[in-house]
Structure formats: C-alpha cells, structure tokens
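Data card: per-record layout.
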Amino acid sequence: MHLEQVRNGSSLRLGTDQATVDRLTATILRELFTGGDFVVTVPGRGPLLDSTERSHMQDVGGLVRTLTIADVVALAVLALSALALRWEPRRRGRLLVLASGSVGVAALMAASTLVIGFDAAFLAFHRLLFREGTYLFGPQSNLIRLFPEGFWFEASLAAGAAIMVSALAALLLGARLMRRRDPAEGAGLL
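The structure for this 190-residue chain is written out next.
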C-alpha cells in the first residue's frame, strides 16, 4: 500500500505527509476487517471521509469480510481434500492441475480485460457488487485522493501476478504429483 500510494502521490493529493497517509490507510484497512465506522481524521482538518465515502467503505468492508470467510472455507476444503486423498497422489495432482489451470486462465482473462479497458472493468466490478449511486466519487473526493486510479490499476496488476504465480506453483506441484505412484499400486492392491 505504502509504495503504491507514494508512486501515485497520495500525500500530495491530500496535502499532508506520507506518515499521515500511512496512518490513515492502516486505520481504514483495519476497519475493513473489523466493521468499523471509517471516521478517520486528518490532524487539524477533521474527518477524512464524508458520509458517502464512509458508507461505501462499509459496503467494501462487508465484501472483504465475506471474501475472507470464503478464503478460510476454501483453505479448509483444500486441507480436508488433501487429507482424504493422501494415498492418491496422482488423483490429487490431477485435481491441482485442473483447479490451478482454471484459476490461471480466469486470472489471465481478467488481467487482459483490465489492461485493455481498466475504467470500464472497474466500473462493471462496482456495478456488480455495490448498490447504484454508492461508489462514484469526483476528483475532489478524499477517498479518490488517498487511493487514486493509478493505485487501483497497479494493485490489480500486482494481485493478478500473485494469482498467476500461485496458480503456476500449484500447477507444477500437481504435475509432479501426477508422476508419482499411488502407494496402493506398489502393494498390488489396485
């Protein structure tokens, strides 16, 4: 966050120093996970976000918490599946290759869409996930100054790269598992 905000001039846009931007950002990030009210203040100037911006951040927080729960459930399913298939490495490998390949292809398609038409994709994302009229802010918005468009473009690319690297690692692990013999085969049980 810090590096992206420095690269995109968030402190200059807000007319404050980077330490203040870092403090404001840390508070906002914490409140995304804790269901906060997003009443963060800029020293000597009062609240950073107006009521509309705070409302949007509360909506974003709900989405973040939902996605966090989905991630925890997915990790639990992955762990239970690995346990259930511990004696079937080739089957685990096939499932990993299928899942990671699907995720990788989806991430590549999303990345292509973002690179070609970031503004349209960003707007479509918001239309899909948030109520109409709750997510459009002008250039004078402190929320936009703190997290400008360049920040989101570069953060999206970084997230996409992380997803692609993870999918590739899972794909390679799956391919390796597919080459292993199942223990039951070696014992003449199959």
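Known properties of this structure: Residues 2-186 form one domain. The two ends are 53 Å apart (CA to CA).

See the next section for split statistics.
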